Amino acid sequence: xxxxxxxxxxxxxxxxxxxxxxxxxxxxxxxxxxxxxxxxxxxxxxxxxxxxxxxxxxxxxxxxxxxxxxxxxxxxxxxxxxxxxxxxxxxxxxxxxxxxxxxxxxxxxxxxxxxxxxxxxxxxxxxxxxxxxxxxxxxxxxxxxxxxxxxxxxxxxxxxxxxxxxxxxxxxxxxxxxxxxxxxxxxxxxxxxxxxxxxxxxxxxxxxxxxxxxxxxxxxxxxxxxxxxxxxxxxxxxxxxxxxxxxxxxxxxxxxxxxxxxxxxxxxxxxxxxxxxxxxxxxxxxxxxxxxxxxxxxxxxxxxxxxxxxxxxxxxxxxxxxxxxxxxxxxxxxxxxxxxxxxxxxxxxxxxxxxxxxxxxxxxxxxxxxxxxxxxxxxxxxxxxxxxxxxxxxxxxxxxxxxxxxxxxxxxxxxxxxxxxxxxxxxxxxxxxxxxxxxxxxxxxxxxxxxxxxxxxxxxxxxxxxxxxxxxxxxxxxxxxxxxxxxxxxxxxxxxxxxxxxxxxxxxxxxxxxxxxxxxxxxxxxxxxxxxxxxxxxxxxxxxxxxxxxxxxxxxxxxxxxxxxxxxxxxxxxxxxxxxxxxxxxxxxxxxxxxxxxxxxxxxxxxxxxxxxxxxxxxxxx
Amino acid sequence: xxxxxxxxxxxxxxxxxxxxxxxxxxxxxxxxxxxxxxxxxxxxxxxxxxxxxxxxxxxxxxxxxxxxxxxxxxxxxxxxxxxxxxxxxxxxxxxxxxxxxxxxxxxxxxxxxxxxxxxxxxxxxxxxxxxxxxxxxxxxxxxxxxxxxxxxxxxxxxxxxxxxxxxxxxxxxxxxxxxxxxxxxxxxxxxxxxxxxxxxxxxxxxxxxxxxxxxxxxxxxxxxxxxxxxxxxxxxxxxxxxxxxxxxxxxxxxxxxxxxxxxxxxxxxxxxxxxxxxxxxxxxxxxxxxxxxxxxxxxxxxxxxxxxx
Lengths: 622, 309
Description:
The structure holds two protein chains of two kinds.
Chain A: H1 6-18, H2 26-48, E1 54-57, E2 74-77, H3 79-102, H4 119-135, H5 139-155, H6 162-193, E3 203-204, H7 208-225, H8 233-240, H9 243-269, E4 270-271, H10 274-296, H11 301-322, H12 325-356, H13 372-385, H14 392-407, H15 413-416, H16 418-443, H17 460-478, H18 480-489, H19 506-526, E5 533-535, H20 557-561, H21 563-573, H22 579-595, H23 602-621
Parallel strand pairs in A: 3-4
Antiparallel strand pairs in A: 1-2
Helix pairs in contact in A: 1-2, 1-4, 2-3, 2-4, 3-4, 3-9, 3-12, 3-17, 4-5, 4-9, 5-6, 6-7, 6-8, 7-9, 8-9, 8-11, 9-11, 9-12, 10-11, 10-16, 11-12, 11-14, 11-16, 12-13, 12-14, 12-17, 13-16, 13-17, 14-16, 14-17, 17-18
Chain B: H1 2-9, H2 14-35, H3 45-55, E1 59-61, H4 66-91, H5 102-122, H6 126-156, H7 163-173, H8 180-196, H9 208-211, H10 221-246, H11 256-277, H12 283-307
């Protein structure tokens, strides 16, 4: 019997202990954090092998012997939380390994590194809290750990200049505000159901109270996972945070937990009515399209990845909103796939950033020769996120598409509009492809920018997580129907679907890829490839000069100049779609209106006081 | 597994669709020649072209990534062949477990274009990069109308997503081209495959006159031979796809052979005539054309399909 309370307690306690070590012992701290995350990864695999509906308690940490403490400490392992715990464990270990090398010194001529202080402390606390969120069966413990995650998220970005401080503040404000809405929702949930035990709550969304509760919890999930219109912290955060942290929190753990809680809400806590389904589908479709359009015009590659991380959330929400077994499984599978490839993309971005010191697409180019492994991994991730068969991103997106068509046979309004959801989801996929063609070509292909000094391939601690995740992308895509979905996703509460196999036979098709490569090489061998000559590019007979290039930044300028898109981008640049910005404007507007009353003239104040007292008197008398 | 490899390599995959596609490309060139009052090439010209390239020197750009540059055409060949298999098996009425949904086919048909984009960018040639960016914008342009047409076909066939079900549905209920929405869908998809094949007026990714063949500028020798082969296969697969979606598929028994040839020939004739009677448009004109006009037609087509017209 394993003691899986350690999964939650150990990282948090060791994390707090690491506070005591001075920050110059970075390597020792890193190694400790690696060992702890390796141990929790082992424990999470053990948890995955536990039976369904396994119940435990965290009550043994009641060192102060507070009476009644135990009932808030219930843990529960079911199919869904097992899945989340397993992947948190895996990602926790991989990114900890990556951080070992990433946090060390940068390229000699680049800016100083922006690793926040007490990095490993907050890293471990995040790990423990995430396990807790996935395992707890009590809403109070849940909201405590959920809030803790918001705090560590804030502490893991370093405010080294005005922009990054603003990003950190924005993150804290948005996450904090959503947490307060979450507390409101949990309060309402308690009023409706008189219990804090998550597995005992089953509510309809027909009464006003329960609908408001649902919407409050939904806002919390949407902010955490990053769905339109509460997503705006993600691109800013990923631009300035260390790449390992972008991979760890916004790309992997926040998605896993946000979508986990949404899935829990959709599957057991609430019974969705037709209107709620429609609302969720609208949110999903808007998230997919708006963010990917923003990704298309970004120049900073980490920001581009941030926008794409938002866009993919739309697919997960769409899948979960369908409420059919196929849709939910598709949404959850996409969540896992997204965590794999987006995490991987941030890691490769971090490798490039570490070895070149450049963050703009326009300053890079031609790195595929110097970083072949990073390039290969990045290409796999990029093709996967763009939904190219037979990779994993294709499989989960395709499950969602098929789910939408199947959902379209139903009777409700949301069902009748299936073609809109399908069109937007599929269009979003090609726009994602377009933005990743820009990213891959801007960083790795084309000609090397002369300003970049010598670049070499990354070392093992950074190399291994990238390759491992790329392998997972390929394996999850090929063996999705035979192994991955039966093994990880066919748990109670989802039901089953049998119509899928036969429509997409990934293993056979993958063998065809190998055959085509073999046939192709036979053709090459018969031809003249072995006696090939290498020559400079042909540019109409001119001598190819360094300045002569077509930057990937120019790729989609045509789209930006079109009237409709120009209007949209213009408004987006003025932050019309940014909830944080709008909220800030409202608060500042209100305070400037109130400041009119504060004239500093005593007699005016006296009049206000007398008027106030008179009003209260009148109210009391009535 | 053995039978699947047979489907892939021999019939209706690589060998069959390579030869048939070569023949169709000869038809295309012959019609073009007649339109321009020329004699036109002999029947075996596509084969000569293919074989000749083996003897030609292969030049590899010294700037780019060799591996990506060499592998990209192979993935394109794979994409074209596998979509040809998944399209031709149901269209020809071959009963087999090796089938695919219509959405899968749509994505497999995109693989050749994506491979060329990556291959072209890997060559490090600025003109190839211009071509690649145009190709990508072209994909963005025709993707939306194509999706809408497929949705209208799904609605018309009673929510069937298996390509073979769509073909058999038309055998019992009549071909979709017989309805108003079917005609509109056909017109839209014809434009989309014109762009997918990179034929005039949508050949701006290759643009011989301005960017010296754009995305294929650096391909030569046997690598270019693979490119040609992929093009031949697409020349069969796309018209067959259209005939499966709107004409109720093909058949290889008795007098039906003649009908089948006519169906494919009709599509090829239309494509060829469009390419011979139009000048190349600029990329933003093409984008406007698809996003505004083709989407409008496709949306009306979906609405009509919902109404059952």
